[in-house]
Amino acid sequence: SFTFSSWQCFRALCCKGPPPPRPEYDLVCIGLTGSGKTSLLSQLCSESAENIVSTTGFSIKAVPFQNAILNVKELGGADNIRKYWSRYYQGSQGVIFVLDSASSEDDLETARNELHSALQHPQLCTLPFLILANHQDKPAARSVQEV
Fold first, then answer.
1. Residue 38 marked as a ligand binder
2. pTM here?
3. Is 76 annotated as a binding residue?
4. Which domains does the chain possess?
């Protein structure tokens, strides 16, 4: 019986071509400044998490998985940038919302409002959402239930 890599070799040698490409999915990653969006994506891409600075504007990372590639558009979370988030939603197939579970009550309320706004946006409301309560390792972190 063929293993998957044997099949790839057979296909490359006999069928004169590489295996079919992995499907790609376009995601948008949003959250307030300091929530950990850039650190999360660096970790998923096996990049160094040292010297990370806040994203101004947006950045795009291709996150490789065995069966798919996620093209993640990370949008800066500063107050003056959040009002432009919706301009970058088009074509998204999923949403990652990152929040700082150890943030102040005010910041948590702002994050809640931004999440509700995203959940109701016409280009996002039918998409899958991953809500990531980041910074669980901090002493002030709230539990998932508290968040």
1. yes
2. 0.82
3. no
4. 24-134 (3.40.50.300)
